[in-house]
Batch of 4 targets.
Target 1
Amino acid sequence: MPGPQDLEPGESIEQYLGNVVREARLALGRDWTQAYVAGKTFSSGTRISEIERGEDPPDRELARRLEIVLRLPPGTLVNLVKILTERTVRDYAKTYLRRQLEATAIHEFSIVVPGLLQTARYARAAMQAGLAGTPAQIDDYARRRLDRQAVLDRPDPPWMMLVLDEACLRRDMGGAQAMREQIEHLLAMGERPQVNIQVLPMKGAPVAGSVSLLTFAKGQRGAYTEGFNTGNYTEDPAEVMHFQRVYDLLQQAALGVRASRELMRDIAKEQDD
């Protein structure tokens, strides 16, 4: 069986997942060989070796068993597998989605409701607008997107500061009922102590894309920007600082939390007219 190999977490999600498995196994002691872990997870030493080298990631069931055996927090591996199986995720977004699961804080400006706060109806409508696939495929993609929202239900969820473009609250995405449900969901999520939602009024010039800033436990930071069919994730300090300034300006122009909630309630009521 091949020996362990050093992996660069930033190279791919597969390699990052393999590195998590390997480090967790080694941390448990010398007796925790690949063969030993294989026996406890009803797998094989060769299979564990392939996972650790980033060559063949586990399916969700094996990922769950590995989490239990290696004493990893629930979702550590399963959430990564979900991202890998999400066919609508572009290559440029995969690193960001993986790093988003590790973030302790998320500061985001978005011209659409971000995936972590979308309802099922809104998610389906957004994917239909982007011609993401057949109705059956879109239902599957939307379910997987909602699965990733479990990160906000963790015992230690990330702090989420969201500035939301008012235009996306008024844009018909799936019909009046879907939009009312989506806004009500935003209001409910905004009541959580770790979720802060502000609305950027439509009185200014339109913003061309979204920006998300991630902060990690050891102080590292990353920035992800996305437009139509394109995106970029970087952890270069100079670029992150540039996008921090962009976010700060947008946040300063946004309504306060209370005023934002009042506006969202008013827009939700308009859906009944």
Note: The radius of gyration is 20 Å.
Target 2
Amino acid sequence: MTTKTRVEIPSLQKVYEKYFNIGAAVNPRTIESQQDLLATHFNSITAENDMKFERLQPEEGHFTFGKADTLAAFARENRMKMRGHTLVWHNQTPAWVFQDSNGEMVTRDQLLHRRKEHITTVVQRYKGQIYCWDVVNEAIKDEGPELFRETKWLEIIGEDYIEKAFEFAHAADPDALFFYNDYNESDPQKREKIYKLVKSLVDKDVPIHGVGLQAHWNLVNPSLKDIRTAIERYASLGLKLHLTELDVSVFNFGDKRADLMEPTPEMLELQAERYHQVFHLLREYQDSITSVTFWGAADDYSWLSNFPVKGRKNWPFLFDENHQPKDSFWKVVQFL
């Protein structure tokens, strides 16, 4: 009788400890259901939703820190770093922020005051626990010549709403690192817009320390060439780079299939090769990239399982639904 040798599974975070932090987006449910996986393979976490404006201050002056505190405690207990996400965003911001007591639009000064109060309260609460924040999220317009996305922040405050946010955050915690975060960061047109914005902040001595590349990618897009160009472009500003929301969808953009109950072998093979190529590239830029955070940890939970096709399952991570390593995992860790 022969006994099959058990394969030792290396810790992802330990494999990469000389390169960059390895993070995962979490929520109160996944820190329970994925607790062992997170503790073994990740040394950084980001709150998926529970530190966004609507979750922390749903009503003026009424802060609800319970779930965020739970996530911060999980990070402390497991000796993980924590990224803060996010202080200013056009989504998940309650309507009251932009309205006065009569339901009319607030003035610039009123909105700046409210934002300063929010940022100061939140950042100071987690001072010494959260080492970096995504201060402003997705402020750039995807297409066309306009630089900024149309938002209430822009409409009421003006273009300096971005630099003001960084200034408020820095005043609340001078020791933390502050990032601008966006998606489609490797698309050539949007890349140049992000670069233009961030360079303008650097030139004004705004306290910005890094660029967050969301990295919501798929099996073929963006190209490795475009990813490399984006990394080099942002790194040329002398800032730190974080991949903040990495996942690799098994569906390409525009694929509307919704009937698959599990990924095909071809999907998994292509995904493994994609992760292999991406991490080979990221290791080349370890002097600039200091953190890589997945927007989840395992395939049993992902925002992509309901987006952009409602109800469709996706399998975008290194670990499967049973928290076991996929071929993608082995491609990422077996590179020496």
Note: The radius of gyration is 20 Å.
Target 3
Amino acid sequence: MTSRDPVADLRRIAFLLERANEATYRVKAFRSAAATVGALPREELLRRTAEGKLSELSGVGDVTARCIGESLGGEVPVYLRRLESTEGTDLAGAAAALRAALRGDCHSHSDWSDGGSPIEEMALAAVELGHEYLVLTDHSPRLTVANGLSPARLRKQLDRVRKVNDALPEGFRILTGIEVDILADGSLDQEDELLEQLDVVVGSVHSGLRDDAAKMTRRMVRAVSNPHLDILGHMTGRKVSAQGDGDKAHRGGRTRPPSDFDLEKVLAACVEHGKAVEINSRPDRLDPPKRMLTRAVEAGCLFSIDTDAHAPGQLDWQRYGCERAALCGVPAERVVNTWTAQKLLEWTGSR
């Protein structure tokens, strides 16, 4: 594959960021990297790229190094593709339109696991936000730190949801669900018979987040191929500073780097099995990172824009996920929670 000109690509990114009135520091990062790369002999640039030592250069960070490597590999950098795909788009308007199109939230927690409020309060907050449904996805047994639900407790919760639904306003319903742990071997942390009963199953990795890439890839692909799983939750497991831009972990906050895995294989499995990739809206997650979200759009994935709310007020966090979705060109028709409850349940029941 013929390589591209990384200097030209970096400068194009800086130009598009400037035109979009993005933060000056972000523009400077790409212009500085372009200047550094432009002053290097081509042989040294290729050598450093092959050895993974680009970010050791002054003015080159992890994001710009990735762009340089993609450009030298003959690929339009993902960062540039994202900017060009939304060029001329009213992103604020697109995010608002996407938020207005959402009919529900597929990832929420109550005080049955590690949430702070009863099921009724979470449901009424969702009603006030204009939702038509809320999927209750408390944790599964092995996540003891989050008071995960044993099979017996989950059965009791299903009974409770039926009673709460009877008392809720017409036109709104709680959908039954779980955020089930993806275990080390890729199996799901709940009885198959119970998973089959649930309306929506979100599967997430909560342990072994630093597993090597090959092991994590096998684990995630096996989980995605499980017919009971519907949505792959917070795909990378990262934690970011809630005050940051969401794609860089900042010092001073509780941060965690993303897990390492073969993104293309995981996305291909999601497409093959018709599973959705969650766009987690929590300010301390914003998962997946924008470059991965752009890849998922290009791969043809379905999505679910969820809050992962642990309290009623957090149910209004969907706007953060919508902003990222608009920025990465996520089509509204591929977001499963823009669908009616009936269509959503037809999709989850189709497997």
Note: The first helix runs from residue 6 to 19.
Target 4
Amino acid sequence: MTRTALVTGASSGIGAATARLLARSGARVLLHGRDEDRLAALAAETDGTALPADLGLSGAATDLAERALAVTGSVDLLVNNAGLGWAGPLPELPAGRLAELVAVNLAAPIELTRALLPAMLDHGRGQLVFVSSIAGRTGVAGEAVYAATKSGVDAFAESLRFELHGTGVTVGVVVPGVVRTEFFTRRGRPYTRGIPRPVSAERVAAAVVHAARRPGDYYLPRWLRFPAALRGAAPGVYRTLAARFGAES
């Protein structure tokens, strides 16, 4: 049976790379994104189905789930990848952008998962993969709201792991640091630090596919698990080091 995968944020970056990798593995890909032209081109390349939508709009995630199920009848793998960023002092964050960050980065993955999970449970199988961020595990100056949404995704995914234990539905989380995509241009501030070095979208996509096969937490690069672990084990030490060496992006 051909596996069906819904990939959000597939019109560029990590989502597009993930969709290509899944298609090469034989999966039928449902492609969500906001750029209809890019999405149509990727659908032609992968023999997938384009499902354009703006997840920042109320009800868009539930509607996307219904459209996906109408196309294939079931979704075996949901890749919650779509995300937005914004960088700058919190008082300068426009209210509309704040609401959009929360809607796309946090509310949409929750709503999509809630809508698609019942069919997975009925079938006794399914995979949920969430693309999070190291910002959600360590905090980043100038990106408080973005980091908060990603931390929320982490908590949601971890809670689901407990809830879904023994059901046949698995949960994987990919935690990238800096990825070479258009994200930093779109957030309004380029990435200027030397560490961590940016990784390719294809490398993150490979981790996404691996997380679907072998659920767990995957950091990119892998050494990022150490500052995350230090923050949990010795938050005072972590904050001292972060203040000294910088926790900005």
Note: Residues 95-123 form the longest helix (29 residues).
